[in-house]
Every structure is written in structure tokens, then in C-alpha cells.
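Hi R.,

As promised on Friday, here is the backbone we talked about, encoded as C-alpha cells. Could you run it through your design pipeline when you get a chance and send me back a sequence?
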């Protein structure tokens, strides 16, 4: 009796064939090409290498025993080695012996003793902002995190009547541009460094700030300007403050070198304290990387200070509540170790005095290198003027060397610095200062 179509469909051989086809389909799907990426070159172009990190990598690859690294933005001792501050070693020992030390979360705002000490350090213990409770602060991921938190806050809540624009000095720390653009704030530059005098282009700076749209955000380096080493005088700071007040601009201070620049904490904090005394509303990004040598511990603080008014405490309370939400959504809780080290030192009279001595050691060695470099270049009658080497301050110096001379120094003498001629004075020491001076002399003469 012939099988019906239905019987044929349900026969063992038919079921086997169906299973085989299904299995073949599955295998084929596994062997088929994967769908193309959602992140092709048009969507995610290759980013350029960070110039400074590229320079560091090139230095490490160089096998010449006389090579000199003047690119790194970190302090080095006279043997070109990282220097752990003696006071940091003492604080570290105290922490290690503390039986109550644990690894629990810090509060969202950070370590309270560290925050209050940071406020006093940057503003002065007798600051009117502290007495009038016009300040709120959060511990951050070093100065970079503080700048970012401030930029994010301004992006969300600062709404002047004109188009929002951030003004940076020309030049400035390159990361400023990226941080503010990441939160949607457009930027422009104001003249700062004069290539002719190798000092401050004060008239250009003032003119630019006067012409900027009312209510612009102006980012200012509190001391030891990065990358030029050129700072305004106190009288010039007063004029800058006057223009910012007249134009109703919002000042944003970035301070990474307090005490490290001159060895005097109050002197290096003068500009910020002056602005606060004048009643400005402002933000401050504070870093402990350089002045404590806590580069990898990422200890920093962000401060918001409002102007004196009857509702100042209410303003600070509202701002603090929003900053806490921003902090919570980004890092939740800041890292503890570096803040604990700094807090121990800042809150202990004996340790604080030792820290000040350590600061004088670092800043003093850099000042000595400035004097030695200028002296050697002038002794060799190297073409050009070199007085700016000692007139600039802090870790960095804009030498005035051209890109051609910088590349010649690298090729001929294995000296590494950024293409704009910026050097880290901390990379110079008594063992390489003469070698470097002679190399500069040769490069300058060879490119004339």
C-alpha cells in the first residue's frame, strides 16, 4: 500500500533529512562572516599619539648614555631620579603603624580632614571665604579631576546671558582644551607669552579679556604657569582682576605648583587669595602631585567659592548638593591613600614645617639650575638673550628654541624636549648642565 504524503513527511528518513538541513544551516551561520564593526574608521578615526608620551617613549628607546630627558613634568633629584619627599616617607610610616587603618570607602566628598586643610592651604587660614562659609570643596582625582569636575559643573549650571566661551592662555596645559571640550564648552585663547620678550604679553592679555563676551569663563594659572614659567606680577594680577570684574567674567584657577614654584606657600597662593578678598565667585582646581611628589596617588581638591551675600550659605549648600551628584556619577568615592598622606602632613605642625623645608629643597634646586644654565650660555656668548631663563619660575621654561633647533638637539645630542622649546628644569642637574648648555650653543649656532 503506497504511503500518503503525510506518512512520507513523518517517515524516519524524512526526519533525518530535515535534521541534517537544520544542522547544516546552523554550521553555515557560524562559518558566515561576522557583521562589520559599528566602529569603523569613519566613526572612530585613529587618534594622534599624545606628544609628551611619545617623547617619553622615544627617550626610553634611546641607548645613548649621555641622553637627557627634559620633557617629563615631574621632579627629579640631582641624580635624575624620582625623589620621595622625606616628610612623605614619615607620614607613610605613621599610616602603616596605625592599627585603625582600613580600606573602606571615603565619603563622596572625600576625606574631611584633607578637604578642610586644603581649603586653609589655598586660601589662608584667615580667609573671609572660610569665615563666612562661602566655600564648598570635594576631593578629586588630582588636579586633572578637579578641572574636569569644575568644567562639568559649569557646563551644566553656568548660564551667562551671552554665548558660553572658555578662554585659555596661549599657550596653556594642552589637557585644558580636551577637558572642557569633552563637556561641551567651546574655547578660545587669549595672548599670554611674548615670543619677542619671552615674558608676559600683558597688553595682549588684557585687550583680549576686555574684548571677550561678558560672562566668559577665564582659566588662570595661579603660579608657575605651565608651560611657560611666566607669571604676572602682583600689580598685573590686580589689573587682570579689574578687567574680569568689569566684564563680569568667571575666573577659574588651576593651581598645581603652590610652594613648588618659589618655596613660599603664601607667595604662590597670592593671586587666588587676592581674588577671594575682592569678593569674586570662582572655582579652584588644586593638585598635590608636584608639591608632595604624590604623582601616582592622584590627590587633589576642587573648590567652589561664592561671592559675599546674604544668601551665600544657601548658594554653597545648593552647589555642594549638585557637585556631590556629579562626583557620585563619575567616581563615587575618591582614592584614600594620597589624601591620607597629605592630610597627616597638613594637619601636623611638625610635619608641615618639614614639608615646607622639602618644598624649599625642590624649588631651590630648580632655581639653581636656572642660574647655572643662564650663566653657562652667557659665558659661551650663545647667540640670543638668555635672561628669561632666570626670570621665569617653576618647573618649566620656554627656552625660545625653535622646532628646528629642538630636533637638532635630539638628533645630535640626544636631548629630549617638546617641539615648542619647553624644558623641564627638574631634568637638569650638576651632572648634565654643562653638556646641555654646550648642546644648546651648538644647535643655535648650527641653525643660524
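Update: got your reply. Pasting your designed sequence below so it's all in one thread:
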Amino acid at each position: 500500500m503506497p504511503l500518503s504524503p503525510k506518512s512520507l513527511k513523518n517517515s524516519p528518513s524524512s526526519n533525518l533529512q530535515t535534521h541534517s538541513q537544520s544542522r547544516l544551516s546552523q554550521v553555515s551561520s557560524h562559518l558566515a562572516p561576522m557583521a562589520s564593526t559599528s566602529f569603523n574608521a569613519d566613526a572612530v578615526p585613529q587618534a594622534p599619539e599624545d606628544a609628551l608620551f611619545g617623547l617619553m617613549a622615544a627617550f626610553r628607546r634611546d641607548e645613548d648614555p649621555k641622553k637627557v630627558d627634559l620633557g617629563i613634568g615631574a621632579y627629579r633629584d640631582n641624580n635624575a631620579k624620582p625623589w620621595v619627599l622625606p616628610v612623605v616617607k614619615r607620614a607613610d610610616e605613621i599610616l602603616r603603624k596605625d592599627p585603625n587603618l582600613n580600606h573602606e570607602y571615603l565619603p563622596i566628598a572625600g576625606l574631611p580632614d584633607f578637604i578642610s586643610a586644603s581649603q586653609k592651604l589655598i586660601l589662608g587660614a584667615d580667609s573671609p571665604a572660610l569665615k563666612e562659609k562661602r566655600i564648598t570643596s570635594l576631593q578629586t582625582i588630582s588636579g586633572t579631576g578637579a578641572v574636569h569636575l569644575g568644567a562639568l559643573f559649569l557646563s551644566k549650571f553656568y548660564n551667562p546671558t551671552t554665548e558660553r566661551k572658555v578662554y585659555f592662555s596661549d599657550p596653556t596645559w594642552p589637557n585644558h582644551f580636551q577637558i572642557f571640550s569633552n563637556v561641551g564648552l567651546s574655547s578660545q585663547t587669549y595672548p599670554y607669552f611674548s615670543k619677542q620678550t619671552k615674558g608676559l604679553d600683558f597688553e595682549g592679555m588684557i585687550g583680549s579679556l576686555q574684548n571677550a563676551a561678558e560672562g566668559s569663563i577665564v582659566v588662570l594659572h595661579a603660579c608657575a604657569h605651565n608651560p611657560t614659567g611666566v607669571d604676572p606680577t602682583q600689580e598685573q594680577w590686580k589689573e587682570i582682576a579689574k578687567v574680569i570684574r568689569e566684564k563680569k567674567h568667571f575666573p577659574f584657577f588651576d593651581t598645581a605648583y603652590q610652594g613648588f614654584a618659589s618655596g613660599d606657600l603664601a607667595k604662590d597662593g597670592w593671586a587666588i587669595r587676592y581674588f577671594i578678598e575682592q569678593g569674586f565667585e570662582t572655582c579652584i582646581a588644586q593638585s598635590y602631585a608636584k608639591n608632595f611628589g604624590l604623582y601616582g596617588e592622584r590627590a587633589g581638591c576642587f573648590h567652589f567659592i561664592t561671592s559675599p551675600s546674604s544668601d551665600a550659605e544657601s548658594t554653597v549648600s545648593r552647589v555642594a548638593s549638585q557637585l556631590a551628584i556629579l562626583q557620585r556619577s563619575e567616581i563615587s568615592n575618591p582614592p584614600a591613600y594620597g589624601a591620607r598622606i597629605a592630610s597627616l602632613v597638613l594637619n601636623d605642625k611638625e610635619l608641615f614645617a618639614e614639608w615646607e623645608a622639602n618644598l624649599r629643597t625642590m624649588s631651590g634646586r630648580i632655581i639653581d639650575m636656572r642660574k647655572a644654565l643662564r650663566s653657562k650660555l652667557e659665558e659661551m656668548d650663545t647667540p640670543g638673550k638668555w635672561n628669561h631663563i632666570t626670570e621665569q619660575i617653576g618647573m618649566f621654561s620656554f627656552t625660545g628654541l625653535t622646532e628646528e633647533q629642538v630636533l637638532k638637539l635630539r638628533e645630535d645630542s640626544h636631548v629630549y624636549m617638546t617641539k615648542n622649546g619647553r624644558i623641564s628644569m627638574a631634568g637638569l642637574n650638576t651632572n648634565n648642565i654643562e653638556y646641555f648648555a654646550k648642546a644648546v650653543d651648538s644647535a643655535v649656532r648650527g641653525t643660524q
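One thing I noticed while checking it: The chain has two domains: 51-84+354-446, 105-347.

Thanks again,
M.
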